[in-house]
Amino acid sequence: MAGGFIAERAGKRAVFYQGKITSYFILACIVGSLGGSLFGYDLGVSSGVTSMDDFLKNFFPAVYQRKQAHLKETDYCKYDNQVLTLFTSSLYFAALVSTFGASWVTKNRGRRISIMAGSVSFFLGGLINAAAVNIAMLIIGRIFLGMGIGFCNQAVPLYLSEIAPHKIRGAINQLFQLTTCLGILIADIVNYFTAELHPWGWRLSLGLAMVPAILIFVGGIFLPETPNSLVEQGRLDEAREILKKVRGTMDVDAEFEDLKDASEGARAIKNPFQNLLKPRNRPQLIIGALGIPAFQQLSGMNSILFYAPVIFQSLGFGSGAALYSSLITGSMLVIGAIVSMGTVDKLGRRFLFIEAGIQMICSMVVVAVTLALKFGDGEEISKGLAVLLVAAICLFVLAYGWSWGPLGWLVPSELFPLETRSAGQSVVVCVNMFFTAAIAQCFLSALCHLKWGVFILFACLIVIMSLFIILLLPETKQLPIEEIYQLWEQHWFWKHIVAKDNEIKRHYMGVN
């Protein structure tokens, strides 16, 4: 039990860290971050495909008939079908389960192998979906896609956080969100053109998921493992050589000693999942593993991404206009991710969370009020109000793009000590995928029954999320990843929780 405290001696040498940005480091970051493109492409492509008439006629004829019946009018319940939403949410249930297997692979075989395994599964899912002739094949394909996302979402944020120098860790980790957003945007562009390829355009959209999977697998062959993972596996000489290459210097002694200290503590932990429940890990569990990944989905963002074409069609837009509107929201996500990369290590995580919370609340209120006054009685919405709704949604997406989107993966990945890092990330992905699947499964039904009230619900949840950040999350910018544990001992609330382990800590440090 006390073995975990060895990790707390790590990070003391941070002032002596040496290094520079090298081409080898840049290559590792680019290839590693491509894992986010799998998640992003699926988010974008599934939302577009579910609004394509050819796809609906093949697999969901009842939805197609209802859509045609309301083609010239607005209707909240146009797409309310639980089997249709299962097509989307089944992937996330599969990712939820697979992430625990990914935890073992990530910890014992390395982050690189886990990323490559995810790409193979995603490739198979794209192949099956492109060839689907019935709903069963669609669901099986989605399960393979979900397994791939479970592996990549488990390993990629860890990979980027571990390989990055601590002063730019925030920006490097957010490459995951940037490639996710680019994946969404590319999927939206693909859907825009394949929607005109009758009757097989949807097959091309789904099948092109194999392309990023191939790129990641091939890139993974040349991808270096993180020094943290190599040390954890006992491959010390190899870890030192990789650290020299990614830092561009022979003087890596200080950082390497910190990695060894952290790894020594990690090996002393026989059950990392059980260790997550210890008082000293309570802040990471509540904030990083449970709170942030759940709130990331409860913001309502993925509902917008899943069903942006559906929402815009329900608002009276035509099919082409709906997909075009999705291109706009996808672009806002990319812009938000770039803004976040440039500011997260300067302004800090808390500032971006809080500012974006205010902007997202205001946007949801505008959407809800507009819909409450002018939408849902069979009357087509005016062009002016339609523009207002699109603008409000874009401002919402932009704020999410520089806050809960990237920070929802960055902050959890940097909170956990090495001893519980892989296990903690598995819980992060599990909670994230559970709420992603739940929102995907329930959103269209909620839109049908709550109507404009669903956006007020999201606004209220964002208020709670923002208070959670203000009260419980300390600032982590530019801190070495092995020093973050010190924040809990100084925090107004968490210091009372982690203090319960102080007696054990004093005993252990005295022995050593």
UniProtKB/TrEMBL annotation:
Which Gene Ontology cellular-component terms appear in the entry? membrane
Coiled coil residues, start to end = none
Q: Which UniProt keywords apply?
A: Membrane, Sugar transport, Symport, Transmembrane, Transmembrane helix, Transport
Give me the segments passing through the membrane. 21-41, 83-106, 113-133, 172-194, 200-223, 285-309, 321-339, 351-373, 385-405, 426-446, 452-473
What GO terms are given for molecular function?
monosaccharide transmembrane transporter activity; symporter activity
Keyword Membrane present in the record's keywords: the answer is: yes
Transmembrane helix listed as a keyword: yes
Provide the membrane topology annotation.
Multi-pass membrane protein
Which PROSITE patterns does the UniProt entry name for this protein?
A: MFS, SUGAR_TRANSPORT_1, SUGAR_TRANSPORT_2
InterPro entries linked to this entry: MFS_dom, MFS_STP/MST-like_plant, MFS_sugar_transport-like, MFS_trans_sf, STP/PLT_plant, Sugar/inositol_transpt, Sugar_transporter_CS
Tell me where in or outside the cell this protein is found.
Answer: Membrane
The highest taxon in the source lineage is Eukaryota
Residue ranges occupied by any Major facilitator superfamily (MFS) profile domain in the UniProt entry: 28-477
Q: Where is the signal peptide?
A: none
By its UniProt entry, which SUPFAM superfamilies does this protein fall under?
A: MFS general substrate transporter (SSF103473)
| Family membership | Belongs to the major facilitator superfamily. Sugar transporter (TC 2.A.1.1) family.
Protein name per UniProt: Major facilitator superfamily (MFS) profile domain-containing protein
